[in-house]
Amino acid sequence: MKLTFWGTRGSIAVPGPDTLRYGGNTTCLSLEIADQPPIVLDAGTGIRPLGLKLMERPGPLHIKLLITHLHWDHLLGFPFFRPIYHPEVSLDMGGWPRCLEGVQSLFDSQRRDGHFPVTFNQLPSRIRRDQDLLAPRFDLGPVRVRTIPLNHPQGGIGLRFALDGRRLVFLTDNELDGPRGLGLDDYARFCQGAQVLVHDAQYLPEEMDRHRGWGHSDWRSVLELARKAGVERLILTHHDPNRADEAIDAVLDEARYLAGPHLLVEAAHEGLSLTI
Questions:
Q1: How many domains does the chain have?
Q2: Domain carrying residue 137
Q3: CA-CA distance, 12 to 9, in Å (whole number)?
Q4: Contact by Cβ (8 Å): 158, 147
């Protein structure tokens, strides 16, 4: 499994000089599995450059898109995903049960002057919700996928991918020990033994009191989760849109110091690619 980051910000895209190194696009990742169609995780604004890359492939294109939840920062890139404007593209959607309704709402409204100049029904590609790709569990060829509810307003799902004893866990927009039911121990069991954990770390520890219930975590809590679950590599993502690159550097330095030599800690940046 090869994972690549195309968008790493939370809440809203923030292009500009302060976000050049970690990137300003909102959440989107791609997952490559041998002999399988390309897999896309979430459709934040990072999906636009990913779409340009995918269209370099010759011939018909089959894509699988997994949506974790329906908040705008994880959907708003979809209307600018070039493959959906090509008649030789088929796109199967899954993950969150209402994934298809979420992207349709970006195009269509009850007003003549809608949210977007193209309606969903005018798209020439074939887009459908695949009942075999929905939570709580499904397979992507040889990869077993399991999900867990996120502690996030209006809900969402985290994803665990397992292949030949290797595990990747993606938990975006998740408040550890948040007010919506699951706690640190629940997530530690879900992440147990993962080679790679990608987790929302939007806030600093000192910011959590005023953001309690917003559905995001601080990096110190995420570090505790990684230790408890025995993961090998932790990647902090969903960076706060107000956090400049230098501030993320400071977070990463402190997290690495506290993690010690047995846990590799990184901050997600656009273009980061790793093989699990």
A1: 1
A2: 2-275
A3: 7
A4: yes
Torsion sign (Cα): 209, 210, 216, 217: negative
Q: Residue 64: its pLDDT value, please?
A: 98
**Are 187 and 201 a contacting pair, CB within 8 Å?**
no
The radius of gyration of the chain from alpha carbons, rounded to an integer in Å, stands at 18
Inter-axis angle of helices 219-229 and 245-259, nearest 10: 40
Place of tokens 């000192």: 206
Strands (E), the chain: 2-7, 28-32, 39-41, 61-67, 89-95, 126-134, 137-140, 143-149, 157-163, 166-171, 196-200, 233-237, 264-267, 273-275
Is 70 exceeded by the pLDDT of residue 109? no
Q: What is the pLDDT of residues 164-214, one digit of tens each?
A: 999 999 999 999 977 777 999 999 999 999 999 999 999 999 999 999 999
Alpha carbons 247 and 265: distance in angstroms, whole number: 16
25 contacts 270 by C-beta, under 8 angstroms: yes
- CATH code at 45? 3.60.15.10
CA distance 228 to 193: 10
Dist. CA 256–CA 265, nearest whole Å? 6
**pLDDT tens readout for residues 203-235:** 999 999 999 999 999 999 999 999 999 999 999
Q: What is the DSSP string of 41-70?
A: E--STTHHHHHHHHTTS-S-EEEEEEES--
**Separation of first and last alpha carbons in the chain:** 5
pLDDT (0 to 100) of residue 149: 96
